[in-house]
Amino acid sequence: MATPHGFRMARRGIERLAPGYAPPRHQHYEAYATVLLRGRFEQSGYAGRMRVAAGDVLVQPTLDCHADRMLSAGLTVLRLAWPRDAGCGGVHAGCDVDMLARLAERDVVEAAVALREQLAYRPMRPALMEDPADVLAAALMQTDAPQINAWAEHMGLARETVSRGFARLYGVSPSGFRADARARAAWLRITGECKPLAEIAADCGFADQAHMTRAITRLTGATPTAWRARSHSFKTRANGGAKLPE
Description:
It is a single chain. The chain has two domains: 116 residues, Jelly Rolls (Sandwich), CATH 2.60.120; 110 residues, Homeodomain-like (Arc Repressor Mutant, subunit A). It is 41% helix and 20% strand. It has a five-stranded mixed β-sheet with strand order 1-3-8-5-6. Strands 2-9-4-7-10 form a five-stranded antiparallel β-sheet, covered by helices on one side. The chain is globular, with a radius of gyration of 19 Å. It starts with 6 loop residues before the first strand and ends in a 9-residue tail after the last helix.
């Protein structure tokens, strides 16, 4: 299900996906959790590349963008609401997914609460590092992300080879991945902090505030000022309705 500006809305509850389900790289506005009840799939996104098997729980963070690849003949998933998550998400194992499925059949809100309790002390599984693209994805998530040409040369690879391999696994070019990750990092701070926009732009590696504005508008369909104005967290933090820094 799509929302304005191409955001996909993940349906809450249990869903069965037919063999061959392979949506192109897409973006979600709200965080959610995917409990895999049957099958296997692979997801590539800001957290890196992860393989998810039956019994695993994949946390999808706020403003996430990823590509999925099915590794089995169909999937059965349970999607549950998750609070705002400024991290990159990841896979957890060892949850009682059968209990969660039974709860969800009665009340998805109750199931979501139970899931958060189960995951409170469970570490996330490390992302895959089987391909140069996985190593590059981790590097591109850093504030001081490397230039693609320099990284490829350091690894002894041709720039074209790196770009093709990355796009095959992540559904986007390395430069596109880096631009999206940087814009997302800035958006999370804009909607979660009170710092001036120009300061956030500098912290996130943009040349100036105008550069950040273009990047966030391209990613989300709205300007930083518009997002800050509609952010509930800022309205509640503003003392007596004081104007927030821009």
